[in-house]
Amino acid sequence: ANTALLLVTPSASFELLTRHGTGTSGRRNFMVSIAGLISTPSTVEAFDGGVGGLGKTKPDTGVVFRDSEIELTQSSRGSVSAEVVAPDGTAALLSFEAPYPLLKTTSGIEARDLGGFESSFVQVVELPKGTMLDSMKPNDFGRLVQATVMGSRGKFGAYGVPSDVKLARVNANLYKCKFTVLTPAMVESDRSALIAARQVGTGIFLLISTTTSARFKKQEGLLRSVSDSFSVVRAPDSALRKK
User: How far apart are CA 93 and CA 109, in angstroms?
Assistant: First the structure.
């Protein structure tokens, strides 16, 4: 069966690593780093190697910032905004609101509840030539998600691609997804996610908001509000920062 990386928080990682006794110096150093993060109320530092920071390699989220020197920030109300670039070079203004802190990563945009299991991150996918998001069939959308978000280079793919992936359309721009992944301790875990989709240029910009399947029913309203806040629009020339 195919497997993948669990979106796991530092606190959950500690429990798993302790329970299964991995005990490598790298993992110990990771937990020492996390201890200094929990007290940070807004933007936090974290490893970027897969969801939860425990991946073997940095995930390919497809996110390209228009100006890599501008630091990504989050307002006191949880608003995250960024100038990004679609695969064809079209500049876009992206924003969403999350109740959990923004992570300072080098390769993407992610907010995560360090004390729980919820997370939201951005994935950019190039549309097949001649395809538009509004006219895309659910099966075609599912194949794109499978190849990117659920792929071996995606956020959930550091330990193998997810298995039992099931995708259902909620509305024209929102999908619900269920899948099974492996934790860093090689334990299977069922997860659920809402995937909001927006198109600018030749790119589909996805906001994946996820938690464990056991928590999904209770957290669905929160994840839906994050998904509904997701906006990606073409940037007017006057709004672009000149280098």
Answer: 13
Q: At what angle do helices 25-35 and 10-20 cross, to 10 degrees?
A: 150
DSSP secondary structure string for all residues of 114-153: TTSS-EEEEEEEEPPTT--GGG--HHHHHHHHHHTTTSTT
The CB density around residue 73, as the number of other CB atoms within 10 Å, is: 13
Q: Return d(Cα 149, Cα 164) in angstroms, integer.
A: 14
Q: Residue 117 corresponds to which tokens in the numbers above?
A: 């299991």
Summarised one tens digit per residue, pLDDT across range 47-68 is: 344 444 444 568 899 999 999 8
**Longest CA pairwise span in the chain (Å):** 55
**93-118 confidence digits (pLDDT tens):** 999 999 999 987 657 999 999 888 99
